[in-house]
Amino acid sequence: MIRPCTSQDFDTIHAIVNDAAMAYKGVIPADRWHEPYMPKAELRAAISGGVEFWGFETEGTLMGVMGVQPVQDVTLIRHAYVLTSHRRHGIGGQLLRFLLARIGTPTLIGTWAAADWAVGFYQKYGFRLVSSEEKDRLLPLYWGVPQRQIETSVVLGDERWLSRKAHGSEGQR
């Protein structure tokens, strides 16, 4: 079952994110890795900043989470993680399809460039990489991440984003 997460799920979300993020250890640049990968204060800030988490639950236990965050004229998919022990069972795909069916705006996803499994996952669902120049413009505009993260990340857009871009109607802020 997919359901919205509540404040009572905070500790579970935190545990899922940090369990699943271990896949990044030794893959992303060492200066971007820290333990825990996402401290509780950072998770609280994401939620306060408008990230709404949804969870995939089986028998009363959350197995995966994915956040959505409306920002200006787009929606961002944020913090998509599945417990290591439950990967490759379709949980991430179910969460992504569920959320995309509810999003009415162009959708963007940012991830680490070195996380080829994540890039491939999103491409499987129709997202395409934007150019390096476009990524350099989008990450500070919509995510507000530090320069080093911009240098080591990619951005993928859905068909609505790509169509809007092709027609020259994306926001130029």
What does this structure look like?
This protein is of the alpha+beta class and 173 residues long. The protein has a single domain, classed as Aminopeptidase, CATH 3.40.630. It has seven helices and seven strands, in the order E-H-H-E-E-E-H-E-H-E-H-H-E-H. A seven-stranded mixed β-sheet has the order 1-2-3-4-5-7-6, sandwiched between helices. Strand 2 and strand 3 form a beta hairpin. The longest helix is centred in the last third of the chain and has 12 residues. The protein is globular, with a radius of gyration of 15 Å. 28% of the residues are buried. The model has no long low-confidence stretch (mean pLDDT 93).
DSSP helix fraction: 25-40%
Structural category: alpha+beta
Segments where pLDDT lies below 50 for 5+ residues?
none
- Classified by CATH, the class is Alpha Beta
Approximately how much beta-strand content do the residues carry?
A: 15-25%
Order of helices and strands: EHHEEEHEHEHHEH
- Indicate the CATH architecture: 3-Layer(aba) Sandwich
Largest sheet: 7 strands, mixed
Question: How many DSSP-defined strands?
Answer: 7
The CATH homologous superfamily is termed Gcn5-related N-acetyltransferase (GNAT)
What is the topology, as strand order, of the major beta sheet? 1-2-3-4-5-7-6
The domain tally reads 1
| CATH fold-type name | Aminopeptidase
Distance between the termini: 39 Å
